[in-house]
Design brief:
The protein is built from 2 helices and 16 strands. The chain is mainly beta. A 4-stranded mixed sheet has the order 4-1-7-8, with no helix packed on it. A hairpin with a 2-residue loop joins strand 2 and strand 3 (55-59).
Amino acid sequence: MTIAVLFLASTFTGQGFGGRTGYDPIPPTTQSPAQVRWINAMPEENVYFLYVGAFGRYLPYGQRTTYVEVEGKQVATYVGTLQGERIVNDVTVSIQPAYPHTIIFTGTPSATGTFTPIVHRDSTYGPAGKGQAQFQIINALTTGQAIDVYLDGKPWAGAQNIAFGKSTKMLGISPKVVEFEVRSAVGGASLFKMQFTAQGGVRYTGVVMGSVGALGNRGPRLFFYSF
């Protein structure tokens, strides 16, 4: 019995298990989750549940979710029916922990069986000053054309030749009622035009969505979402 006690004492000394000097179990590191919202930019009549990781939201066309906290750097996205059936294969996207993101679902899954998620890391700068409204425009046209955006009838500097899935930098204008026009970057055909009241101190994500050639509100449109 005496020998056993001495053996245990020598094994569990201040030097740690197995005599590893300075050994101290390190707790696993954790990262803050990303804040993620998502937008339905799939120009279909069908209404879907759109999933990001474990979170699913009933989301009609053109609408967005609120931000939710999503763990991990690689997250599965997919589209499901109102009955909970998946209608497309998962698409894994990359997000950055601790940062806000917008994921835009594009495509026509009922026709093609596929969709494309556009991942955009939102700005973490503070809101614009009261004397300015800020915009970031993302091209989510399902038909994939590059676009130009015109402001009050003139090419908007910084918003020209925006490829599918890409965004402009943050662009500022004075608060006022303005006319936005979306044109095809090739040939210059006008795709959509609208009046919009830009509020000072507000930052907007502008998403161009829809399909060129489609009728009604499934044709090209520009939706604005503040954040």
